[in-house]
Amino acid sequence: MDVLRPFRTLLSIKHDVARSWQAKGKHLVGWSCAYTPEELIYAANSIPIMVSGSLEPSKHADVYLPINTCSFVRSCFDSALKGDYEYLDGLVISNSCDNRNKIFDLWKHHVKIPYVHFINTPHTRTEGTHNFFYDEIFRFKTSLQVTFGEKLSDTTLKNAIRIFNENRLLLKKVYDLRMKDPPLISGAEALEIVLSSMVTSKEEHNVLLKRLLAGASNRADPPKGGVRLLVSGSVVDNSKPIRIIEAIGGSVVADDLCTGSKYFWDLVSSHGDPLRAIAKRYLDKVSSSFMLEPGTNFSHTIEMAERFDVEAVIVFALKFCDTHMFDAPQLVKEFEARDLPVLYLEWEHSLSGSAQLKTRIEAFLEMVKGVG
Amino acid sequence: MVEAKQKRRRRLQATKGFYKAYIKKFYRDAHKAKAEGKPVAWVASTFPVEILQAMDIFPVWPENYASLCAAKRVAVKFCEIAESRNFSKDLCSYARCVIGSLSDKENSPEEGLPRPDMLVASTGACDTHFKWFQYIGDRFKAPLHLLNMPYNISGADSEHLEKAHIEFYISQLKELIDFLEEKTDTKLDKKRLKEITALSDRTSQLWGEIQHYRKTIPSPMDARDAFSAVFFLLSIPGSPAAVEFYERLRNEVKERAENKFGAAETENYRLVWDNLPPWFDLKFFEYLNTLGAVVVAETFSHVWMGRLDPSRPFESFAKKYLPNFANCSIDRKIHLIQDLAEEFSADGVILPTNWGCRMMSIGETAVKEEVYRKLGVQSLIVNMDSTDRRNYDEAQIKRNMEVFLQVLNEKNQNG
Fold it and tell me: How many domains does chain B have?
């Protein structure tokens, strides 16, 4: 279907897309964690680009990293070592996990990037941490201004907030296409749509989203549906694992991924001081597993499961992603208590061993269908 | 027989019977405090435990308990229990071990860990600390307070920390104290904090002196003793017991240094040891001695020291804890190991990784490269786990160690 193809294309030529923005005079700033305030980058006449990995074995990174390293950040580092991201004018990182903290140190040693900025993100929400985080965001603003010689005025910030909020609202509408049974778009397509928003200008992405929403209900080839699933995890930056699930009878209609619903679910307030509104949104947004809340808080995940009326859950634990792996046993219990069948799976970013994954998912789906 | 006697003679007197005299006592005291209704907090390292001590909150240190379970050879069993409950095999073995131990009181050494009234951790060392404690807190319905530490990306030492980082850390300490005061219904006594801070400072000073004497050739103290004795510095630094013990240890090490009496019969290779030891096999260091190698410095013995100014405890804690290498860019670790290798006249560096620990595993190749580039000193990366024996291939590790020492030997002869 034509209205969907552009998103896939954007992902398959993402480095060319980035370069084309550079040719139009934009600065390109890479980011790695969904807690990066992209609006600031956008307001600095720049395009924020998510640094992601590939499905290839990370043989360049293996020289520097032990095997017990998160395979996602390892793959990102591998791409960087291969020169895939040599066009970046800058890279912004934040302390969202041990893997990232330590690997981005290695970037400084082994990959040349003209500008690197670090944002300290607190792991709790109090008046004190909000003040500190605001100062961090202010520091980032100043640093972008100095580095790129661009002025980040209230007007440019408010404009960025407007465009990003529009993108978030449109993505929510796209997600809502999956409330139907069978859904109007597949889980793999939904993930590709969100991921493609991270490799180009949000303004342009909004145009594509509007076109999609206008044409989605007339699809000639709608997904065939299947067992309605929620996929829970941290980062999934490639639709392949979702495709595997959907090829064998699953229908991924919801997620709580950092690269999925958690990325766009919350809006920035359009009232008051824009910088304060941005700082508040990012610290208060739906928590990633590195944020500590009173008790274990899975409210977003539960909300997604209910909203999209799922029949079962796959907890998709990325190997060596400690914060998510510590949540997983609790999350499994949480769903079991709600009588939702749940499968706990550990997976490698490169999908090595995917035959075994497939077998386990197949057996799980059979079991769910049998119960239903 | 004669050999065995000589070996015994070489172990330090101060650390003789350490487990019975100090560790057992510590856990006995913890259970006693609990029984008497005193508040008990579980605490993770890289945390200003001095504040707990000043508020008479008993600080239980589960990381130590895991190492103890490893030494008693029950850690694997406990890890397996945790794994049967979906805690991944790739998670921190300390965490898995302690989580598993909660379901097997019968086999838990020292009657297990006393139930926490509260838990405290910081973001300074790793993600595991607070995620692990979050689970424990949920399980016992005990509150967890997390102290945010700004990540020290520049790797600044205590004299060059960013002002904003110090200020934020101090504001976080105030949040912590509010939490502790509320939970214990007592106010922090500033005078008492001063006293504890002074004791902790003295503890660090003495520990520093002990390390200093290990620069002597031959080294008067080995890693086996150091990994036991460092217990006080981490668990109860602000206590007369710590000061008393370290004074005794310092005197003995000093005397040995003056008499050039080494920890091992022969000291052909002086080594620096990073990260953790195999807690289930501390005899490994004696095996190294039989090959003529002595570990003269551990990063572990050097990152937990910090001089404190009792008149400014909060600022002192910031300066003690923020530059801990766990909270810093890899550059800081590289510089620390370079300094240790140089100051302790090391012939080689051992870089053990820790399977369930990203913080200790990532970056060791950079350390290896940079130490060699600056000093021409070789390193050996040893893939292992400190607590889960299943991730410890003893035969292979020993083979690699022997080959590594041969390489050092050839280098010494050629050069």
Answer: 1
Could you tell me if residue B298 is inside a domain?
A: yes
| pLDDT at position B1 | 43
pLDDT tier for residue A220 given thresholds of 50, 70 and 90: confident
Domain annotation covers residue B4 = no
Q: Which domain holds residue B327?
A: 12-414
Rounded-to-integer distance, Cα A256 and Cα A259, Å: 8
| C-alpha to C-alpha distance for B112 and B100, rounded to whole angstroms | 11
Q: Is B7 a domain residue?
A: no
Contact call for A101 and B130, based on CB within 8 A: no
Return the exposure string of B9-48: e unless at least 16 CB atoms fall within 10 Å of the residue's CB, then b. Answer: ebebebbeebeeebbeebbeebbebbeeeebbbbbbbbbb
In this complex, is the C-beta atom of B383 within 8 Å of any C-beta atom belonging to chain A?
Answer: yes
Q: How many CB atoms lie within 10 A of CB B91?
A: 25
Model confidence over A47-103: pLDDT tens digits?
999 999 999 999 999 999 999 999 999 999 999 999 999 999 999 999 999 998 888
pLDDT value for B2: 44
State mean pLDDT over A190-200.
Answer: 98
Count of CA atoms in the C-beta half-sphere (13 A) of A369: 12
pLDDT tens-place string over residues A290-315: 999 865 579 999 999 999 999 999 99
- pTM to 2 decimal places: 0.96
Asked if the Cβ–Cβ distance from B361 to A68 is below 8 Å, we say yes
Q: Which residues of B touch A346 (CB under 8 A)?
A: 88, 90
Assigned domain for B269 exists:
yes
Q: Is B406 exposed, middle or buried (0-12, 13-18, 19+ CB in 10 A)?
A: exposed
Q: Do A102 and B85 touch (CB under 8 A)?
A: no
Residue A371: per-residue pLDDT: 73
Query: Do the Cβ atoms of B135 and A317 come within 8 Å?
Result: no
User: With contacts defined as CB-CB under 8 Å, which chain B residues touch A105?
Assistant: 329-331, 363, 366
